[in-house]
Amino acid sequence: MTWAREYHSEARPSDFLIQNENGPYLARWYVIRQGRRWLDRSPAIRRHDLEHENPRVDGGRRNVFVHQFLASDDDRALHDHPWPWITIILDGEYLEHVPADARHPGGPTVAHRRRAGDVVMRYNAARPHRIELIDHRPTTTLFLTGRKRREWGFYCRQGWRNWRNFTATDGRGGSRGCA
Q1: Which residues of 57-68 are buried (b: 16+ CB within 10 A; e: fewer)?
Q2: Backbone angles phi, psi at 122, to 5 degrees
Q3: Which contacts of 95-101 are long-range, i.e. CB under 8 A and separated by 24 or more positions?
Q4: In the chain, which ranges are E strands?
Q5: Three-class DSSP category at 148
Q6: 68 near 140, Cβ under 8 Å?
Q7: How confident is the model at residue 6 (pLDDT cuts 50, 70, 90)?
Q8: Mean per-residue pLDDT for 145-167?
Q9: What are the φ and ψ backbone dihedral angles of 167, each rounded to 5 degrees?
Q10: Which domains does the chain have, with CATH numbers?
């Protein structure tokens, strides 16, 4: 966590802040974004290290982010991702809700407690989940993605819904969700 804190979450404002209906939800710092180097923002990583010791870092269309969850995921539905991913919990903890039965992703869920030091991998981008912060305490993760494989969305009881439709405004100051 020291590296992420020193050069990202406590050293500078986030590169991207996602808001939900109640305020800040997720702060994101780019370490490597879509094959582009963010060396000017990450002084701990030297250009020589990236070019000579890890040649796959650039051009692989993969991302590395530091994420700080400031609020839980929307509890109306599980969501999937556009790429396979790996997350390493650096600080804090959360509950990860996943389908109790993989054949029914919009149905009942089971929760797994994830703590600092845990590594979670999802090779199947379509495997849904939801993050719930414990006692509303922020959690920081290192989040690595593979190549984009698909659009992402939410698993409602009626079926999968594209994220743009789920998050579109409902005319009352909220988002449509599964309705």
Answers
A1: beeeebbbbbbb
A2: -130, 100
A3: 95/131, 95/132, 95/134, 96/120, 96/129, 96/130, 96/131, 96/132, 97/129, 97/130, 97/131, 97/132, 98/127, 98/128, 98/129, 99/128, 99/155
A4: 16-20, 23-33, 36-37, 63-69, 78-79, 85-91, 93-99, 109-115, 119-122, 130-133, 139-145, 153-156, 159-162
A5: coil
A6: yes
A7: low
A8: 93
A9: -90, -5
A10: 2-167 (2.60.120.10)
CB atoms < 10 A from the CB of 135, how many?
5
pLDDT in tens, 107-149: 999 999 999 999 999 999 999 999 999 999 999 999 999 988 9
Residue matched to tokens 């000579």:
52
Tell me the two tokens of residue 78.
Answer: 């599980």
Q: Give residue 11's pLDDT band: very low, low, confident or very high (50, 70, 90).
A: confident
Give pLDDT tens digits for 48-77: 333 333 333 333 568 999 999 999 999 999
- Alpha-carbon distance values, 168 to 17, 81, 176, 177 (Å): 18, 18, 6, 8
